[in-house]
C-alpha cells in the first residue's frame, strides 16, 4: 500500500477552485496583469541569443524567472509573479527560452526541459552586470524542472550570488508527466502544446540538420513523437526516453546545496504521483516541498485577490533572504 503524500493544508480555495482543471485554466482566461518590461538581449557562446525581459524597481535583490513549455515573459504566471515580487522590492528578470521571445532563434537546436546551459549563462550575466546582493531562481513547470536540475548539477558550485531556488508545478519525472498529459482527459492541453510546437518545428525544416518531413510532423499527436523526431536528436539524446530519463530533475534534488522551495498540487492534471519529489525532498534538509491538495497546474488562484497563493508563499521565501 502506497503511503499517503504529505499535504500542506493552508491553501483552501472556494468550491470552484478545488477543481484541478478549473484552477489551471482560470488564470489563463481571466487573470489580467499589467507589467511593462524592458528587453536586454545577450549572445550565447554557440552563436544564438537569449532575450531577457526586465521588470526593475531599483531593488537590491533579484529574481531570475524561468517560464514553462512554450511560455514566455508574457505568460500570465510570469506577469503575476513579476508584480508580486516587485511589490516587495525585488527586481525581476525573465529569461525567455530560445525561440520563445517572439522571434525565432538562430540555430536548429532551441530549448528543452533539461536545458540548463542558458540559465547558467543568464546567472553569470546578471551577477556580473548588476549589483544585486542576492539572486533567487524561480521556475514554473518546465522552468521549475530546469531550476531544480541546474541546482543539483552544480551543487556546491552554484554561483555565490544565488541564495535560493523555487520550483512551482515542476514535472520532476518527465516520462510520467509526458504519459499523463497524453491521456484523454488532457487532450485540449496537449493539442495546444502541439499546435505551438509544430508551428516552430515547421520553421526548423529550413536547417540541414532536420531529418523529419512536413507530413511526419503533421501526423505527430503527442510528446513521444515530437521528442523522438526533434527534441532528442537536436539536443544530443538517443531518443525521447533517453531525454526524459536524463533530464528529470527528481534525480538531481539530492545534490542541491542551496535553500529550495518546491510547490506542487496533488490535483495537477498534468502530473502523476511520481512527478512529486516527496522522498527526495524529505532526504535533503535544504529542500522544502509544499504539496497541496488543490491548486491545479501553475494555478493556486485566490478569488478576489491580486496576488495568488503560491506568489504569497514565494514572497515569504524571498523576504527570508532579503
Give a description of the structure.
Residues 1-5 have low confidence and may be disordered. An 8-stranded mixed sheet has the order 1-2-4-3-5-6-7-8, sandwiched between helices. It is built from 11 helices and 8 strands. α8 (223-234) crosses α9. It has 2 domains: 16-173 and 249-321, 3-Layer(aba) Sandwich (Rossmann fold); 175-247, no CATH class. 37% of the residues lie in helices and 16% in strands. β3 (61-66), α2 and β4 (90-96) form a beta-alpha-beta unit. It has 322 residues and is of the alpha/beta class.
Helices and strands in order, then pairings?
Blueprint: H1 20-30, E1 38-43, E2 49-55, E3 61-66, H2 76-87, E4 90-96, H3 117-129, E5 134-140, H4 142-154, E6 162-168, H5 174-181, H6 187-203, H7 214-219, H8 223-234, H9 240-247, E7 260-265, H10 278-282, E8 287-292, H11 309-321
Parallel strand pairs: 3-4, 3-5, 5-6, 6-7, 7-8
Antiparallel strand pairs: 1-2, 2-4
Helix pairs in contact: 2-11, 8-9
Radius of gyration: 19 Å
CATH topology of the largest domain: Rossmann fold
The number of distinct helices, counting runs of at least 4 residues, comes to 11
Helix-strand pattern:
HEEEHEHEHEHHHHHEHEH
Instruction: Give the CATH superfamily of the largest domain.
Output: Alpha/Beta hydrolase fold, catalytic domain
Strand content: 15-25%
Pfam family, one: Abhydrolase_1
InterPro entries: AB_hydrolase_1, AB_hydrolase_4_sf, AB_hydrolase_fold, ABHD4
Domain AB hydrolase-1: 63-300
Family: Belongs to the AB hydrolase superfamily. AB hydrolase 4 family.
